[in-house]
Amino acid sequence: MTAMTVEQLAWLAGFIDGEGSIGFHEHKMSPFRPNQRTPVFVPFLQISNTHLGVLRHIAQWFPKSRIHIDARRARQGHLPCGLFVIAGLAVYPVLEMLLPFLVIKKPQAEAVLEFRALPKFKRWRTGINGPQIAREKSRIPPDELEKRLRIVTHIRALNHRGLASQRARLP
Predict the structure, then answer these.
(1) What is the C-alpha to C-alpha distance for residues 56 and 39, in angstroms, rounded to an integer?
(2) Which tops the pLDDT comparison, 124 or 158?
(3) Which of 16, 21, 32, 120 is the least buried, fewest Cβ under 10 Å from its Cβ?
(4) Is the Cβ–Cβ distance between 45 and 86 less than 8 Å?
(5) How many whole angstroms separate alpha carbon 149 and alpha carbon 95?
(6) Is 167 exposed, middle or buried (0-12, 13-18, 19+ CB in 10 A)?
């Protein structure tokens, strides 16, 4: 990650507040991974915009980012929309840097950082001899899974479009 000035951080936070999204991608249990007992939540920060130059400008600060361009979804007479994405562990230091400058997306960023602070649990690993437990605590206990689901549900409610009165509140 490239060092950024205070002005650049403030500008980027404003851009994320207006055009960005912060949340989790959920990878549910798969028939192809029978040993996966609990969902895996991957944090993301994304910005969508039709001005690809500004997305490339933002991407130069973050080497672990990607830009997706889907011209097939563009309607006739409209520019294709680009999507700047940072996902996984690379999200956490970015959100820490931006947190003082975020306004609208600050609750989402705080919730993602709260998620990171939860205890870590190893998942099953599949080796050449079949599935093996990586550690004794390979499964997330139900109470810890509930904490994770509560944070993810809270972020989804914050990201929901509509009237604030219709959004779910964090219990």
Answers:
(1) 32
(2) 158
(3) 32
(4) yes
(5) 20
(6) middle
Q: What is the average pLDDT across 36-43?
A: 77
What phi and psi, each to the nearest 5 degrees, are found at residue 73?
A: -85, -10
| Pair 127, 137: CB distance under 8 Å | no
Check: CB of residue 101 under 8 Å from CB of residue 14.
yes
Residue type, 34: P
Residue 30: DSSP 8-state: B
Gap between the Cα atoms of 89 and 157, Å rounded = 23
Tokens of 82: 């680009």
Six token digits for residue 98: 């931006």
User: Cα torsion for 155, 116, 109, 79, to the nearest 10°?
Assistant: -80
Q: Please report where in the chains the tokens 């609750």 appear, as a residue.
A: 107
Residues facing 47 on adjacent strands: 20, 84
Which contiguous run of DSSP H or E holds residue 19?
helix 6-19
Size (the chain), residues? 171
What is the layout of strands, in order, in the sheet containing 20-27? 20-27, 40-49, 81-87, 66-70
Q: How far apart are CA 53 and CA 67, in angstroms?
A: 11
**29-33, 106-110, 132-136, 141-145: lowest mean pLDDT where?**
132-136
φ, ψ of residue 14 to 5 degrees: the values are: -65, -40
